[in-house]
Amino acid sequence: MDPTSRSLWEQEIDSGNKAAKQGNYRQAEKFFASALSRAQQSLAEPQRLIDSLTQLANCYYEQGDYTKAIPLYQKLLTMQKHSMEVDRLEIVKTLDKLARVYRLQDQPADIAPLYQQALEIEEKLLGPDHPVVSDRLEKYAEILTRLNRAAEALNLSKRAAQAKKKALESRTQVTLASPSSESRTKQIVLIGHLLTRSGFLSFEEMNRQLKYAKTLGLPLGRVLVSGGYVTESHVQAALDMQSLIKDNIISMEDGLRALSLIAKDSLTVDEAIQQIGCRPNEIKTHKLGRLLVDSGLLNEEELRAALAKSSESKMMLGQVLVLSGKLSPIVVAEALKLQELARDGSLTHEHACLKLQEIASKES
User: Fold this and answer.
1) N or C: which end of the chain has fewer CB within 10 A?
2) Rounded to whole angstroms, what are the CA distances from 320 to 13, 105, 326, 344?
3) Per-residue confidence at 182, pLDDT binned at 50, 70, 90?
């Protein structure tokens, strides 16, 4: 897709979203249909086609036009499953949306395979004892009961009960992971506060997405990006500002002012903090990229290339590094944990680097 077409596509998606928020779905449908047609002309950018399909299918769903929505959701699922860039969470959301359409049309036989697929993804992503998994098991059991598959339904109900029991037991235990869990909750609230107070999205929408993130046990930023509420760069800007505030380098008020400038004028973090009176070279944040470079796992050139790919593909930096073969999934996962501990003050940056070097040496 050439720059002009890309710009027109973004305008159509933006105009469609604005119309949909105002409840003008007929107008939104026209914008989304045009965006889809434009995206279909460039197979080199499948993510834009996926985004267009999602928006148009959801628009039909909101209008109750299920005959048009169903084939779009089915095509969307096929594309999402074959894309390396699509978050598994997005597939679950599409499965659930299609299942809701079939439920409204009282078609339990069509719902059952969708719940089965969603269950497999959620179990792999969250573990067999997560509350989201037990809820899925109960919903799936209800559908199987309606289909006269009583034995299978009973088995799922037993699994759901066992999962709930284990989840309850784990919540009553005090483990070494408790501080990290508490820290994660504080981080989610702070990021949400920063993004809402600086004008990226409303408090009402943030509260809905916070509940969704906590229910799934996923980072808030990941849920917001997947839902199209913010971009990857916006989340990174909020994380950078969070580090600056936690390290007492800037005040909460200055952090909000800087983020507001980023939201309004599309500035970089450095540009925004310059405008509020800070010098970029005074700012030292606990970024993942900096942790990896200071640990000797990447050089500056490799980091710049990975960040450019991350921005271009809308993928997380860690995902880019794993897919490119620069780092293993285990090293990236451990780096993210150490980054969080450094942000919370549980580890110094130097200690986090040493720990990461130790982990990487065991992996190599």
Assistant:
1) C
2) 26, 41, 9, 25
3) very low
Residues of the chain within CATH 1.25.40.10 domain(s) are: 1-83, 87-173
Do 32 and 12 form a contact (C-beta atoms < 8 A)?
yes
DSSP summary character for residue 281: G
Burial (0-12, 13-18, 19+ Cβ within 10 Å), 31:
buried
Mean pLDDT of 150-165: 89
Query: 87-173: which CATH topology?
Result: 1.25.40
**Is pTM, for the whole model, over 0.70?**
no
Q: Are 15 and 24 in contact (CB under 8 A)?
A: no
* DSSP assignment letter at 294: H
Instruction: Name the token pair of 6.
Output: 């890309």
The string of DSSP letters for 154-170 reads HHHHHHHHHHHHHHHHH
From 3.30.720.120, 3.40.50.880, 2.40.37.10, 1.25.40.10, which CATH number describes the 1-83 domain?
1.25.40.10
CB-facing half-sphere around the CA of 265: CA atoms within 13 A: 12
Contact 224, 209 (CB under 8 A): yes
pLDDT of residue 313: 61
Give which of 137, 139, 136, 175 is closest to 158, Cα–Cα. 137
Contact 147, 112 (CB under 8 A): yes
